[in-house]
Description:
By secondary structure, the chain is of the alpha+beta class. The protein has a single domain, classed as 2,3-Dihydroxybiphenyl 1,2-Dioxygenase, domain 1 (Roll), CATH 3.10.180.
Amino acid sequence: MNYTQIFDRLWQDYIEQNPATKNVYDLFITEGETVYNDHIAFRTFNDPRINIDVLAKVFLKNGYEERGTYKFEEKKLLARHYEHKTDIHAPRVFISELLTEVFSDFLQSTVRKWISEIPSELFQSDELIYSGNVPGAPSFEVYQKLRAESEYAGWLYVNGFMANHFTVGVNSLKKLDSLQKVNSFLKSNGFLLNDAGGEIQGTPEELLEQSSIKAGIIKIQFLEGIFDVPGCYYEFARRYPDADGKLYSGFIATSANKIFESTNFYKK
Ligand code: NI
């Protein structure tokens, strides 16, 4: 499988499980735009069996290399980003991991138990990034307790391994060529923007602006029954040239912090 096939497969899973994301994509196409992905993001826990380095393997094997490391102090996350060595149109890959040791014993033991229910042969397999919530039906009570400490942990406990978001590269859009235009287009089509800390995160001076819609609500089978919870979301990024005239290619932890809140629990 080459990297194009990897992204196609991730995309199919993402739109199947989160139909709202396909609706957004279709809106851009109907508007006459060509959609390129700025980046695709994954979430994981920092356990050595499934941490960033483990998820990155399949991309490193397929022409990618590491280009940046980021620390999200408030969310207690570490992240790295990867780029394809030669294909400048290939999406960046952004992988974050939750620093579980700074959380409660409850969160740590829940995560350990969750990982222990994943067959060990999957840890080293290229299939890991598509495998979803391998341990099966989660407990709604446990989910609620995890969320109280970390929305990120709650999301991961329920959704598992899949693309957390795809990101439209706004620089490649013709008509909707600013985040302001993208945001009002989305709102006029009935989508809810993640407005934690403002609708646009980052500034032209920081060379990266991002916005996102709130994750669509999906129905999940829990042990206690079916409940509505946030699934994946769609993100939008506009990059600006640096002093050398080259488009900035990294990420900015301070301004991306609130973007993680796109998957916070909310009621429709
Ligand atoms: Ni992102």
